[in-house]
Amino acid sequence: MRQPYLPPPYPPPPERSAELRRRFAEEARAERPDLSALCLLIGAELDGSLDDAGIDAAQAELDLLAGELPYRPGGPRAWAEAVRRLLGDRHGFHGTPGDYQRLESSLLHEVLRRRRGLPILLSVVWLEVARRAGAPVYGVALPGHFVVGFGPAADRVLADPFDGGRVLTGTDAELLVVGATGAPPDPSMLEPAPPLEVVQRVLNNMRAWAAARPERSDVALRAVELALLIPSHPARLRYERGQLLVRCGQFAAGAEEMEHYADLIEVVDEAAARAIRQEAGTARATLN
Predict the structure, then answer these.
(1) Cβ-based neighbours of 109, under 8 Å, separated by 6 or more
(2) Rounded distance, CA 41 to CA 161, Å?
(3) Does the global pTM surpass 0.85?
(4) For the segment 121-173, what is each residue's pLDDT rounded down to a tens digit?
(5) Where are the strands (E) in 77-211, listed by range?
(6) Fewer CB in 10 Å around end: N or C, the chain?
(7) Of 75, 17, 5, 2, which Cα lies nearest the Cα of 50?
């Protein structure tokens, strides 16, 4: 429901939301999930102004950008430099610290419009444009900072879309990881990130954004409910959904979700289950 006292974007009406969630769940279960489609469906679920024509236009823009890349420019470094020149230099895609404060920075259609966004959404643009052009490209989920990789492990080249696509040296990547974790990178951190892992991380960013803004529990709830549609989601998301439903004033539904989660974990953590049931009881008592 639209809340006039909050700034846009405003969510779609219930009928549209139900259809978007159905399509999101179907795409998430596909044999080869489409990353751009999933991100645009997230955008439509958070921004009711994004209709199907807008989704198609965003996909068409990614196609057009891919068409501007040179044909088979060379090896991994040549690909990285070609995409940097196109997206970073010519079209001005990049990020700034202020972008972390904006929900639009996590919405693919807004990132395409503004040419600004979080590292992971800018990386989605890099991935989808380069993939359409035939590049050997994949996402790399470094701790605290998402980048893109080109080529096989032996010849891997990393680029940072948040920094306009700057090609990273080994030292650059190590500094990013050390800055986030305090420890040098593990080789496993450079493995390609599957599309559903990227989508889950996009939704996690939205939840983190909303957690710092209690008045936007609605955004966190929508992000959690989309995350629950992804196969093999963490069970604890159900507990988080219950808490968010309570914060949004849906006390009975929130209590029911928390009790369901308590049933799931009771065998492994009886004390935690008991505490969650007490929390659910408090929520139900609010109705009296």
Answers:
(1) 40, 43, 47, 50, 54, 55, 58
(2) 22
(3) yes
(4) 999 999 999 999 999 999 999 888 899 999 998 899 999 999 999 999 877 87
(5) 137-142, 145-150, 157-160, 166-168, 192-193
(6) C
(7) 17
